[in-house]
Amino acid sequence: MLAIEYRVRCAISALLVTLVALLAACGGGGGGSGGSGSATNTPPGGVQLQVVSFGDSLSDVGTYAPIASAVGGGRFTTNPGQVWAQDVAQYYGDTLNAAYTIGFDHKLSAQSGLGYAEGGSTVATPANQYDFLSDVIGNIEMPVNQQVSSYLSAHGTFNSGQLVLVWAGANDVLRAGTPPAATATVQTAASTLAQVVGQIVQSGATHVVVVNVPNVGLSPKGRAASDGGANLTQLSQLFNATLNGALQANGLQGKVIEVDSYAWVTQLIANFQANGFTVSNTAQACDASKTPDNTSLFCSPATYVAPNADQTYIFADDLHPTTRTHALFAQYVEQQIAASGLGH
């Protein structure tokens, strides 16, 4: 079989070489450097970019897919839908795959992708200090500072042809507890994230998107809390204010593209029907009685509360966005990137 596959690949390669030669003889292929200006090769975003992503479950493109796919899951959304980072990557002509995956051996295995975000990750706290689906995946997820170190260890630097996406902090907010003790925890996490962003910029990245923490208090999980989510909202605000101040103090605000997911999620919920949803933050698309561990990681069409729940609900489970919400957020991010002068 391998010999047959090899011969097929060689035949295809030979055909491509012939086609390229014919195009060159006819004056085709474009006259610009590299031919990147060809209309047929220009992605919707107007510029070709390689996407690198760091963060948590909101951006995880499939770290736990080898396990979750057994029940039709794979990402923290209404599977088989994509998360926002994948949508953004496609907009700029790229495909974002997981940098690491985990199998039933509960060990991370390095892959060729640049999607470093992992469900359960904090900014800098080691995984073994928390209990995140440990019965299923173990305590192995990398915090974001380790994700960046892992990328730099493998690739050395970032470059101007890349778009680097950074979205983290929600797990730090969720696990911080209540003030006053939670205050220092959240402020430290936000300040550390600003330092990590600085490391990314100093390592050669010229297009860096930094997304702040959404209003976690407005999630179904927040609404179900005894205070209706007030503490989580307050901690989300504290994280964002601290992050913003640290980026400014570190001279990074003019060097990154800041995206306000807090304001975006708040307005999305307030105007959910105008945004095409029938259910806001009052329920989840994945049936809790059918979805293992009641997490969208294991959510599939077989566990939807309705056939089109991935398009009509804002939340997949009690924290994570549905496919439609991810797609709309990706569009918002793309607009912010265009406003910075990159692509359209």
Question: How would you summarize this macromolecular structure in one to three sentences?
Answer:
With 344 residues, this protein is an alpha/beta fold.
Protein traits:
single chain; 344 residues; alpha/beta; Rossmann fold; four-stranded parallel β-sheet; two-stranded antiparallel sheet; 12 helices; 40% helix; disordered N terminus
Could you characterize what this model shows?
The protein has 344 residues and is of the alpha/beta class. It has one domain: Rossmann fold. The chain is built from 12 helices and 6 strands. A hairpin with a 5-residue loop joins β2 and β3. α3 packs across α12 and α7 packs parallel to α9. The longest helix is centred in the first third of the chain and has 24 residues. The relative contact order is 0.13. The N terminus is likely disordered.
Provide the CATH superfamily.
SGNH hydrolase
- Domain count, please report it: 1
Class, according to the CATH hierarchy? Alpha Beta
Low-confidence stretches: 1-39
Question: How many DSSP E strands?
Answer: 6
Give the integer mean of the pLDDT values: 88
Instruction: Kindly report the spatial arrangement of strands forming the biggest sheet.
Output: 1-4-5-6
- The termini sit apart by 45 Å
Rg calculated over all Cα atoms: 21 Å
Element layout with pairings:
Elements (H helix, E strand, L loop, with lengths): L1 H24 L24 E6 L9 H4 L15 H8 L8 E3 L5 E3 L23 H4 L6 H12 L6 E6 L2 H6 L5 H22 L5 E4 L8 H5 L5 H20 L7 E3 L1 H10 L38 H4 L10 H17 L5
Parallel strand pairs: 1-4, 4-5, 5-6
Antiparallel strand pairs: 2-3
Helix pairs in contact: 3-12, 7-9
